[in-house]
Specification:
It is a single chain. α1 (12-144) packs across α2. The protein is mainly alpha-helical. It has helices spanning 12-144, 150-166. It has two helices and no strands. The protein is rod-shaped.
């Protein structure tokens, strides 16, 4: 009889040595490699987690600063509007004061001019009365061919002046 060899034969010794080799290799890798790789992976995971937390904190801080800056910009815009309004109001007040002052000065100048005109009119009438009185006196002297006393002269002048005041001059 012929001995045949099965296609699939299990060699128990080979299996045992392979299993022992895998166990020894696993123990060696675990002692020298797995723990270092595990520590490296844990450290890397912690660094990444820390970086993410830092990034979140930085983003929160940036958002807060952005909100603060936006609020400050809004306040600056509002303050600038208020300053412009205050400047316009102050300019209006100053313009009104300048106009009022100019009007007051114009009124004072008109009042002064009117007083000056009345004074000049008074002086002109006074001079005119004296001149008319002198002319009337000269005319009366020539008509009467005599000289009058100062009292009589004054009476005649006042009478003529009163009559001249009552009648308009044309």
């Amino acid at each position: 009889m012929e001995m045949y060899q099965p296609l699939l034969a299990i060699n128990w010794w080979n299996l045992l040595f392979t299993l022992i080799t895998v166990i020894v290799l696993f123990i060696i890798l675990k002692v020298f490699f797995f723990e270092k790789v595990h520590k490296f992976m844990m450290n890397r995971e912690n660094e990444i987690r820390s970086s993410i937390e830092n990034a979140d904190n930085v983003n929160k801080l940036a958002d807060e600063k952005l909100q603060n800056y936006e609020a400050k910009i809004a306040n600056v815009e509002m303050e600038s509007r208020q300053m412009l309004k205050a400047a316009r109001d102050e300019a209006k007040v100053q313009a009104k004061e300048i106009v009022d002052s100019a009007n007051e000065k114009a009124r004072n100048l008109i009042d002064h001019s009117q007083k000056e005109i009345r004074r000049e009119q008074y002086n002109a009438r006074k001079e005119l009365k004296e001149e008319v009185g002198n002319l009337a006196m000269m005319a009366a002297e020539q008509i009467l061919e005599k000289e009058l006393s100062p009292e009589t002269h004054e009476e005649i002048i006042n009478k003529i002046i009163e009559e001249a005041d009552e009648k308009p001059w044309s």
